[in-house]
Amino acid sequence: MPDIAEKDSEISYASEAGRFSKHLKQSHFGLFHHLRGISVVHGDINVLTPKVRSYVEDKIDLCQPEKIHICDGTDYENSSLLTLLQKEGTIKALPKYENCWLARTNPADTARVESKTFICTEKKSEAIPTPSEGVKGSLGNWMSPSDMNKAVKERFTGCMKNRTMYVIPFSMGPVGSPLSKIGIQLTDSAYVVASMRIMTRIGQAVTKIMNNETEFVKCLHSVGTPADGKMEMPSWPCDPERTLILHKPQANEIVSYGSGYGGNSLLGKKCFALRIGSTIAKREGWLAEHMLILGITKNGKKRYIAAAFPSACGKTNLAMMTPTLPGYKVECVGDDIAWMRFDENGQLRAINPEHGFFGVAPGTSNSSNPIAMSTVFKNTIFTNVAETSDGGVYWEGMENEVDESVKITDWLGKPWDRKTSKTPAAHPNSRFCTPASQCPIIDPQWESPEGVPISAILFGGRRPVGVPLIHEAKNWKHAVFMGASLRSEATAAAEHKGKVIMHDPFAMRPFFGYNFGQYLQHWLSMETRTSNLPKVFLVNWFRKGGDGKFLWPGFGENCRVLDWILKRLDNEDCALKTPIGLIPKKESLNLEGLKDIDIDALFKLDAEFWKQEINAVEKYFEEQVGKDLPSEMKEQCEILKKEIDSM
Ligand code: GTP
Ligand code: SPV
Ligand code: MN
């Protein structure tokens, strides 16, 4: 048993009397290498507080693993797990880079499954709004606690037979920050452990600061075994037929079965930081949001901006952008999730609860996101990207980065040819899992325990028609309406098919942990918490022209839009009132050096489109949120309709 861990646990538990100190003493004599009779093959059980230990013991009884491994987060542990994963064929080394790995999943397990994700509360109305008669709700799924217990029992009883149960203590947010929260994930996937080690802070650093008063979110995960026992791809065990991702906010508990991929299995991310997180945030008076956080410096003055875009709509890219305009610097605090609260001075402050990036690979290139490209080629796990004959990776968008003579194997392991293959080389939701600390523009304050001050909030999505490049909210109620009425084209990040425009309020539709109507009320209440609300904007990089091409070059050029936002934060008189909000006055958006921009098309406001848009939003509110809708939202619809009528 490692010396250090033992010393640390003695320090942190010095105040714990009785039962606990007895454990410590006994461990010196080499006892307690077992939990519930199961051997602990790695790690020190004494680092677990009695509460954690009793949670682990409960789940051992349920899952019946062969061995227990308590994660310490060390390099030694990590390299032994990677060796094991290689032996099992789950990952292979990518010798072109330093400590990089490629995982191929079962093709039936490649994205989040929203239809199998549930919030479990006593009353249905706590979890989701009540849709009107005959309408299927689309703001989350509810399950009763008794159905949850039944589903868990069916799936988890004995599910870890012949497998190792890994116990991962992890912190969402800098360890010890007053804004951070702790979780304990139990999983039977070494791939998940290796990924959680990148995405969160795990192991000794976390157990060191825990005592028996420390609250933690309980996260149980198994990749599962199909009911007939047949594992289609032993290197990627999963049970897609019976996959279920369950959340019990009242008990701070997550239970996920059947999938090893992304948000389904890295439980710190969407399950904890957003679904459970939003319920904790509601109780404690703060916000857990699907937002990137970036710092932008212009003429020596630095501001921080948070931005909510739906999955696969550009958060990672904006968070790491390389501004094309001279004199600007963008730095990255986080690319996916923000935990935000007003401090005692009424200043909104945000932390990134994560420790890594789980970013979309396709579309990432030295021209679109050179910062991501200089982040991901060391210490990274790639999943479902294509592989090159020289031991590297390939995906759509890397055409200019890989020599034509190099042979490519697609994400399914089949030979793939640039000219003749009709399917993509990489899965559209293939991803890199990479340490945030490696990002060359990681913000110096990214781990600041008090968080960074937020001056502006952006909403955005993929809107090929009608929605201008940028507009600003008129006031806070309108800002909340903007978030609530967010819509975007479906992407590959979940199971939705085709290019339909979906409602995705606050880019949180798949991630609400409680009734969306109450969530809106919570956002509206921010107005009473401070006199210093951030300004709110809606951006759309994805408007298309008649030729079907994007009207806006996007990526690094988006700094021009951020520049206009900064002017607004400085109260510059550069905005023009329109019925839908404020847009840039002529010439106030810096287009210097850009050629062939159809600025009129980018900002054209079509009365007919906006009438339909507001009608669609109003219908959505009525049908989906019904009596849970705050009256302010209905009022915003009325105001907008009137203004649009006068267009
Ligand atoms: P999640 O990790 O799923 O939450 O996604 P995300 O919001 O971080 O999206 P990401 O930045 O990974 O971008 C997803 C896709 O959108 C990639 O293929 C990008 O190349 C593309 N994209 C991002 N920004 C822009 C932009 O400004 N313009 C255009 N045209 N495409 C963009
Ligand atoms: C998203 O879908 O918004 C993601 C990817 O960030 S996942 O971790 O799979 O949720
Ligand atoms: Mn995301």
UniProtKB/TrEMBL annotation:
Keywords: Decarboxylase, GTP-binding, Lyase, Manganese, Metal-binding, Nucleotide-binding. InterPro entries: PEP_carboxykin_GTP_CS, PEP_carboxykinase_C, PEP_carboxykinase_GTP, PEP_carboxykinase_GTP_C, PEP_carboxykinase_GTP_N, PEP_carboxykinase_N. It comes from Cryptolaemus montrouzieri. The keyword Transmembrane does not apply. One of its GO terms (molecular function) is GTP binding. It holds the Pfam family PEPCK_N. PROSITE patterns: PEPCK_GTP. This is Phosphoenolpyruvate carboxykinase [GTP]. Catalyzes the conversion of oxaloacetate (OAA) to phosphoenolpyruvate (PEP), the rate-limiting step in the metabolic pathway that produces glucose from lactate and other precursors derived from the citric acid cycle. The keyword GTP-binding applies. Residues 55-282 form the Phosphoenolpyruvate carboxykinase GTP-utilising N-terminal domain. Monomer. Belongs to the phosphoenolpyruvate carboxykinase [GTP] family. It comes from the Eukaryota. It catalyses: oxaloacetate + GTP = phosphoenolpyruvate + GDP + CO2.
